[in-house]
């Protein structure tokens, strides 16, 4: 069971918009930056979003991140079949045993 | 171009010690604010962070596995080595190494492809 909770799967049609949620607590999401990763089949995970809503160079603006309280959200607009992948969130947990935590991952299916 | 690649045994026996090597290029672990982390994912389960080593040789470990983990840095070879003792079948997973983004606490901006380690007698 992950410290951060994500839906196991989401789906949408090409061209549509989808959101993926990541729920945590005051010891992690609420008081630390959230990052989002994409893992396409057979490839290394890729950093999509950092510091809640910033995109690394080369990441299209179809991908966006937001945070409110103990939850974070990844948004993807203009869905493409190439977006079909696993997405997972991550952050720092600053409880007594400080450590990096990840969500369980969400499988995005583009119908 | 920044790359990382994990290497090590694909099969280990229960109670054995696992040693994995992360060979990286395109950046220096001596650069202030940079780190290399280890993350694993058991089949069908979530990612689990294991360890981090920083540019100043500071090390952090998962509180749940701390007693079994050691991470070291071979400066002459641009390699980071993870050892995990007393392996058991529940440690079967794909093990990744990743670069901690400069100045970040938990952003991993480059990852290796991962290596699958199976624990079985």
Describe this structure in words.
The complex is a heterodimer of chains A (111) and B (121). Chain A is mostly beta strands. Helix content of chain A is 0%, strand content 45%. Chain A is built from no helices and nine strands. The termini of chain A are far apart. Chain B has 121 residues and is an all-beta fold. Chain B is 0% helix and 50% strand. Chain B is built from no helices and eleven strands. In chain B, strands 2, 4, 5, 6, 9, 10 and 11 form a seven-stranded mixed β-sheet that branches. The N and C termini of chain B lie far apart (39 Å). The mean pLDDT of chain B is 94. The A-B interface holds A 2, 32-33, 35, 37, 43-47, 50-51, 56, 88, 90-92, 97-105 and B 37, 39, 45-49, 52, 60, 62-63, 96, 98, 101, 104-114.
Residues in β-strands, percent of chain A: over 45%
Estimate the helix proportion of chain A, in percent.
under 10%
Residue windows where pLDDT falls under 50 for at least 5 positions of chain A: none
Largest sheet of chain B: 7 strands, mixed
The outline of chain B comes out as globular
Please summarize what this structure is:
The complex is a heterodimer of chains A (111) and B (121). Chain A is mainly β.
Descriptive key words:
heterodimer; A: 111 residues; mainly beta; six-stranded mixed sheet; 9 strands; B: 121 residues; seven-stranded mixed sheet; 11 strands
Give the SSE layout:
The complex is a heterodimer of chains A (111) and B (121).
Chain A lengths: L8 E4 L5 E6 L10 E6 L6 E4 L13 E6 L2 E6 L8 E9 L5 E4 L3 E5 L1
Parallel strand pairs in A: 1-9
Antiparallel strand pairs in A: 2-6, 3-4, 3-7, 5-6, 7-8, 7-9
Chain B lengths: L2 E5 L3 E2 L5 E8 L9 E7 L6 E7 L4 E3 L7 E6 L4 E6 L8 E8 L7 E4 L3 E5 L2
Parallel strand pairs in B: 2-11
Antiparallel strand pairs in B: 1-3, 3-8, 4-5, 4-9, 5-6, 7-8, 9-10, 9-11
């Amino acid at each position: 069971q992950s410290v951060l909770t994500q839906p196991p799967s989401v789906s949408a049609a090409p061209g549509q918009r989808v959101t993926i949620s990541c729920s945590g607590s005051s010891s992690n999401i609420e008081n630390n930056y959230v990052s989002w990763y994409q893992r396409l089949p057979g490839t290394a995970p890729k950093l999509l979003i950092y510091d809640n809503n910033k995109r690394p160079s080369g990441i299209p603006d179809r991908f966006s991140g937001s945070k409110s309280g103990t939850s974070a959200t990844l948004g993807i607009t203009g869905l493409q079949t190439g977006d079909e992948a696993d997405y997972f969130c991550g952050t720092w947990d600053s409880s007594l045993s400080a450590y990096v935590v990840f969500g369980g991952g969400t499988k995005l299916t583009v119908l | 171009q920044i790359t990382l690649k994990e290497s090590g045994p694909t099969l280990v026996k229960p109670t054995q010690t696992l040693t994995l090597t992360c060979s990286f290029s395109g950046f220096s672990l001596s650069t202030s604010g940079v780190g290399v982390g280890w993350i694993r994912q058991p089949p069908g389960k979530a990612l689990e962070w294991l360890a981090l080593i920083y540019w100043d040789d500071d090390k952090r470990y998962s509180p749940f596995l701390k007693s079994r983990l050691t991470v070291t840095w071979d400066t002459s070879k641009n390699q980071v080595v993870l050892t995990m003792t007393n392996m058991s079948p529940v440690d079967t997973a794909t093990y990744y190494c990743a670069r901690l983004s400069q100045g970040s606490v938990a952003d991993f901006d480059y990852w290796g492809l991962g290596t699958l380690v199976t624990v079985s007698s």
